[in-house]
Sequence to fold (293 residues):
Amino acid sequence: MKRRFVTLDVFTERRFAGNPLAVVLQADGLDDTTMQTIAAEFNLSETVFVLPPGQAAHRAALRIFTPKRELPFAGHPTVGTAVLLACLDGGNGARAMVLEERIGPVSCQVAPAGDHGHTSIAIPVLPTETGAPPSNPALAAGLGLAVTDIGFGAFAPSCWSAGVPLVFVPLKNLDAVRRAAPAASFAATFGPCASYIFSKETIDPDHDFHARMFAPHLGIAEDPATGSAAAAFAGVLVQCGLADGEHSITIEQGYEMGRPSLIRLTLTVAGGKLTTASIGGGAVFVSEGTIEA
Fold:
């Protein structure tokens, strides 16, 4: 059976930048094994399968797969699919949309514009700390760095999840971020978690953080833009003393891959606690066709 798909570049305003995404629009009847096989065939960070929603008021149900396994939630698939569905629905007016994912319903604000658009999504589950990180020497060895590269200001390694578990590793400057790469001990150090490294030093002075993400256990050697990590990063920021109030944070990622991406993280802190958070960014159509499955 021929099934229509569209690819988009996400967390960017232009083609051939950002994080590529494949969306299979006619996924009815596909079983889990076939979806995983198709995701491996596309071999992108994530592939989305669009299904009828469980509730009539919702726009669609999504299944999200990396080349190796399914995820309960991911940011760039949600942002890109929301833009795609809004564009297919027609009209250029901003609108609300709810997408059903394994983590639960995800509320989106979408502004489509023909073959591109912008989505802001409310984080469905606020980030939680998931345990103690590996030691700094183990982290340094796993990333091919020196121990002195790790940490700056109030930032120290920590483990957080907003649907996908990550180890957050602050690095003192851009040079350390650029030198980082999974080493022989990476799998033993990080286990089932992805590694999200970041610095306060950025390429664009108007941005707030520079980041990279490695997740070889998910079939993602490096990710150009990681919305679920940005969502969990809200917890890191609050833990490190972000003041009460509303904050807008711009995270640059993917520059080392030649895929510059921008993720907008908006969060509200009250009484020293995170109360709301959302992530947003652009998406643009790149290609479309059919896949036999």
Q: What stands out?
A: The CA atoms of residues 74 and 288 lie 22 Å apart. The chain has a mean pLDDT of 98. The helical segments are 32-42, 75-89, 136-143, 174-179, 186-190, 227-239.
